[in-house]
TrEMBL record:
InterPro entries: ABC_tp_sb (IPR014597), Bact_solute-bd_prot1 (IPR050490), SBP (IPR006059). It comes from the Bacteria. Residues 568-577 have a biased composition (Basic and acidic residues). Belongs to the bacterial solute-binding protein 1 family. This is Extracellular solute-binding protein. It is found in: Periplasm. Residues 568-598 are annotated as: Disordered. One of its GO terms (cellular component) is periplasmic space. It comes from Bradyrhizobium cajani. Gene3D superfamilies: Periplasmic binding protein-like II.
Length: 598
């Protein structure tokens, strides 16, 4: 773990998600040799067999793969380099899909797997130097604000209609991507396309929550049913109940909450991944609040104008401070004592050990590890003892706000890549998100990007063994879980400020208010430097002058917006829960017509 903290570049969560399965912290690359001829029918048929199940018929798969082979003919024999972080989905791409692409097209494809922080660092290097480091990139859509403002990224919607039209898959079906809105800039143009997605949800022990004895005891104490918490008050009551009332199950000490608190880079995304929005920070708006987003950054048009309350932001407002206060309180009272000294990667496996009742901040990327046969949270028949459900919201939250985070690792092209290499890379990047392969890839990594894959019958059949993952992705609630948006003008520079400042609150060096004041001031300082440099042009930051907090509270009320909100007199309203099975049944059982296609 020390070697991660020594490095200079920003660290992000996905490099930690698979640390347990990565033996060496070095770049892993798969160089694929390829014939320098277009694929013959035998090669196509071999890969069609691999890419089952598919939402396409085998005849349509053949048509799509034949198109890739033909479109790639001008680039046969070229060696193309693409990079992504290391998660299960990308491992499948680098080991299987890169090989398939090379055999089908004659392009020698090398797909590197490195830490996510290194992906961002190398991306910055290419953007700043203009030298071609990689021909194609898979990086988080959290950088959409960065890509939009610096002008170094190829606008895909323009590229597909213009320069890259001859190498754009006619069967790509852009409107089938569920995260298209995440990769769209303020100008309405598409800068990236999702390659994998996973959400941050609520996880709980379904077997304990449906236990008649526990249900009766909870109802007697709190006056409402033990169930999926709708608000943070209920989450807190449930945490208290299992930690201090139930105490032990089958002779094992149990806890009503799990989290982590070590001052470490992984603490940063614990909060930038929408913890403040869950509490009720910012304004209404999907995918991100406007005029103030979940980072507390206020916008005027496409310009960020401040994150501190005195500039109209909400990073250090009452809702944000409440979110940090509750995080610290629950960590101390209801999580295992060792959790306070854990990092993200150390805390991640703990719920699978069987003594945690619930966890509000839980990534669906853990699903594959949580359904392994024989572990403490699995039944003998292969079904889980646990479920995942929509996250509860804090007391400042209002209907219409985002409710959590969704990661969207997305394919990206840079203008500094030579035109022919960019075209060849674009072919590969489309191939790994094409309908011919995406359903199989979804079964391997459980990171959905297409509506058609989510609603495929193969996932209807598999759903009972995935603990609610399929039900969530088929639900109307899904759209409230979104990545960092356009408001954040320079994700790499701003994201690293979070763990440093909130870590001071976690360690006890500062109060929640002091920590958030320092974070807001630091964000404003970075944006002020960007403003002075003028490097981001007409959509770069232009900070508001400082006013009193009361000025901004009154302005929000006058304008009919929300952020920043005044401190509530009562931050713990009555708990509210919903029965999990009732919740699931209330969601539609048939796919919508072109959901999110607008």
């Amino acid at each position: 773990m020390r070697q991660f903290r020594r490095r200079k570049g920003p660290l992000t969560k996905n490099s930690f998600l698979t640390m347990s399965s990565v033996a060496a912290i070095v770049a892993v690359s798969f160089a694929v040799s390829a014939p320098v001829r277009a694929a013959d029918d035998a090669v196509i048929q071999k890969w069609i067999a691999e890419f089952q199940p598919s939402t396409l018929s085998k005849e349509d798969q053949k048509k799509e793969l034949e198109w890739f082979a033909k479109a790639a003919e001008p680039f046969k024999g070229m060696e193309i380099n693409v990079v992504s972080e290391t998660i299960t989905t990308h491992e499948y791409e680098s080991q299987t899909l890169a090989k398939a692409f090379s055999e089908l097209t004659g392009i020698k494809l090398k797909h590197d797997l490195i830490q996510e922080g290194d992906v961002v660092e190398k991306l910055q290097t290419q953007m700043q130097s203009g030298k071609n480091v990689y021909d194609g990139w898979i990086n988080d859509s959290d950088l959409i604000g960065t890509h939009f403002r610096y002008g170094q990224t190829v606008v895909l919607s323009d590229y597909m209609a213009g320069e890259g039209k001859d190498v754009t898959d006619p069967m790509l079906d852009v409107n089938d991507f569920i995260g298209k809105s995440f990769t769209t800039g303020p100008d309405g143009k598409l800068y990236q396309l999702p390659d994998q997605q996973f959400a941050n949800l609520y996880w709980f022990r379904y077997d304990w929550f449906t236990n008649p004895d526990y249900k009766a005891k909870f109802k007697a104490k709190y006056g409402y049913e033990l169930g999926v918490p709708v608000n943070w008050s209920a989450y807190e009551d449930i945490a208290e109940f299992f930690t201090n009332d139930i105490k032990e199950i089958n002779g094992v000490k149990v806890y009503g909450h799990m989290d982590y608190g070590k001052k470490d880079p992984s603490l940063g995304w614990r909060f930038t991944d929408a913890w403040l929005s869950m509490a009720g920070n910012g304004d209404k708006g999907i995918p991100n609040g406007l005029p103030v987003d979940e980072w507390g950054i206020r916008m005027e048009g496409c310009r960020p104008v401040g994150s501190s309350v005195e500039r109209g932001g909400d990073t250090n407002g009452p809702a944000a401070v409440y979110s940090i206060t509750k995080y610290l309180e629950w960590l101390k009272k209801y999580a295992p004592p060792q959790a306070q000294g854990m990092t993200f990667s150390e805390a991640g496996p703990v719920p699978a050990q069987g003594n945690i009742a619930q966890q509000m901040f839980w990534y669906t990327a853990f699903t594959a590890d949580m359904v392994k046969p024989g572990i403490a949270v699995m039944n003998a028949d292969g079904t889980p003892k646990w479920r995942m459900a929509p996250s509860p919201h804090g007391s400042y939250w209002k209907e219409g706000m985002k409710l959590g985070y969704q990661d969207a690792g997305s394919v990206t092209l840079l203008k500094s890549t030579p035109a022919d290499r960019r075209k060849a890379a674009w072919l590969y990047l489309q191939f790994i998100i094409s309908k011919s392969v995406s359903l199989k890839k979804s079964h391997v990594g459980l990171t959905f990007i297409r509506e058609s894959d989510i609603w495929d019958k193969s996932f209807t059949e598999r759903a009972p063994k995935l603990g609610g993952l399929i039900e969530f992705y088929r639900s109307p609630a899904r759209v409230q879980w979104t990545p960092t948006g356009n408001n954040v003008p320079d994700y790499p520079k701003l994201a690293q400020l979070w763990w440093q400042n909130i870590g001071d609150a976690s360690s006890g060096a500062k109060t929640p208010q002091q920590a958030m004041d320092a974070l807001a001031a630091a964000q404003d300082s970075v944006m002020e430097r960007l403003e002075k440099s003028g490097v981001q042009g007409a959509c770069g930051p232009k900070l508001h002058k400082k006013e009193s907090a009361e000025f901004w509270f009154a302005k929000a009320q006058k304008d009919g917006t929300i952020a920043p909100q005044r401190k509530l007199a009562n931050e713990k309203p009555k708990g509210e829960t919903v029965d999990y099975d009732t919740l699931i049944k209330s969601w539609p059982a048939t796919p919508p017509k072109r959901a999110e296609a607008k």
